[in-house]
Amino acid sequence: MTCCRRRIAPAPQPSKGRSGPTIRAAGACPLAPTARRGWGALAPPVMFRPVTQTRQEGSGPGFVRAVGTFAFAAAIFNVTVGGGIFRLPATAAASVGTAAPLAYVVCGLVMGCVALCFAEAGSRVPLTGGPYAYVEAVFGRFPGFLAGVLLWMLGTTAMGGVASAFADGAAALLGIPGARVPVLVAAFATIAWINIRGVEQGARLIVVLSAAKLLPLLLFVGIGLFSVVPANLAITAAPEPANLARAAIVLVFAFSGVESALAASGEVKDPTRTIPRALVIAMTGVTLLYIAVHMVAHGILGPRLATETTDPLATAFGAVVGPWGTAFLLATATVSRLGYTSGMALAVPRALWKFADDGLLPRVVASIHPRFRTPHVAILVQVALVLLLGAVFSFEDLAVISNLAALLLYGGCAAAVLVLRARDVKAPGTVPYRVPGGPVIPVVTIALIGWLLTSITAIEWRVLASVLGAASLLYVLSGAARRGRPAPTS
Question: Exposed, middle or buried, 413 (CB in 10 Å: 0-12/13-18/19+)?
Answer without folding.
Answer: buried
